[in-house]
Amino acid sequence: MDLNRLKKLSEKNYNCSQKVLVYFANDLGIDENLAVKIATPFEMGMYNSEKCGALVAAYMVLGLKYGSTDFEARMNLAGKVFELDKVFKEKMSTKNCRELLGMKVLEADNMNKAAEAGLFETICDKSVAVVIEALEKMI
């Protein structure tokens, strides 16, 4: 994992899903600005504190790399998604944003509470690192 590259993405204030998709964008033949736009609505568990945005962006990376209409290729992709899920759950304990952060981020004043507690820099950045490391081994 290129930590300098990841640091630069953080300096651009990219959210978790944007960091993951943009990290691989060049390798996948997509423009960084397009990757940012595609990944935007998947942050904060798709704005509902559901499945982690970094993990969802990792699925996008796998889809861009291995997506196909061929049944066998799709089943191979499914295996990679299951493998990624297993790694993520082993390292993060859950795939759910609300459970990772201990709160529903867009509820009440939770965005400020999460920021003040440093959750985006700790939990979210760790989630990003976990999926990037896993993807680098898979693709």
Q: Measured on Cα atoms, how large is the radius of gyration?
A: 15 Å
Mean pLDDT over the full residue set: 95
Strand content: under 5%
Described by strand count, sense and barrel closure, the largest sheet is: none
- Helical proportion, percent range: over 70%
Give the N-terminus to C-terminus distance in angstroms. Answer: 13 Å
Global morphology: globular
Order of helices and strands: HHHHHHHHH
Number of helices: 9
Residue runs with pLDDT of under 50 for 5 or more positions = none
Structural class: mainly alpha
What oligomeric state do these chains adopt? single chain
- DSSP strand count: 0
Descriptive overview:
The chain is mostly helical and 139 residues long. Helices cover 76% and strands 0% of the residues. The protein is built from nine helices and no strands. It has helices at residues 3-11, 16-28, 32-39, 43-49, 53-66, 71-92, 97-101, 110-116, 119-138. Helix 2 packs parallel to helix 9 (119-138) and helix 5 (53-66) runs antiparallel to helix 6. The chain starts with a helix and ends with a helix.
